Amino acid sequence: MFPIRDHNPSGRTPYVTYGLIVANIAIFFSYWSLFRDDRALSAFFYDWALIPALVTQGDGIPGLFTSMFLHGGLAHLAGNMLFLFIFGDNIEDELGHGRYLAFYLGCGVIAGLAHYLAAPLSPVPTVGASGAIAGVMGGYLLLFPKARVDIFIFLIIFFKILPVPAWILLAVWFALQLLGGFGAQGDGSGVAYWAHLGGFVAGMGMILPIWLRKGGPAYWSRNHGHPPHPAMRYDDTTRIPRIGRKR
User: pTM (2 decimals)?
Assistant: First the structure.
């Protein structure tokens, strides 16, 4: 299952989220031609990806930053940008454009450090925005656990679009990353599980002071775990957002 959209419009245009999506797409297609040449692509990733073994040697530290703007294929890019599009706007709305950008980049660097600590001698290049986006997801879980997210479920010939509270989707995603992280053998899994986990925890940690200033559990009670919108009220029985309806 994977998310395809949410029902939580933001109160301002998410310029940074859109800019990050455009930047990731533009950078990907700037080296798209290298996918026809494995040696050239490997050399490119050697220079710009996160390679833990190089960091251990004191080199490759810029890769903690540059790797979060690189992707290993179209499906990798599309999946990450979809998650960023769905969850990024509400976090940007809460933090403001500048703080959100700093938050995103900070989560990405911490995610890279988590991956490095999990396998400091790995020579495998790691790329992807998923660690930074995991941080956005962690912050979203803390602020908006009951926000409605549509997920697409496909089982052979059966498919369905089902709305679920965000906390269910994100908790399942986190559990899968945890299982993958402990179950992966060495660095051969091809998925940076610990980067995902590190980014997610970092996102929750950075958002925690904001959530507490808003009242902690009382903030959830006021908005029923949804992003607050001046024109939106919530049904006390169903906890489903209703436009223009009084409590």
Answer: 0.86
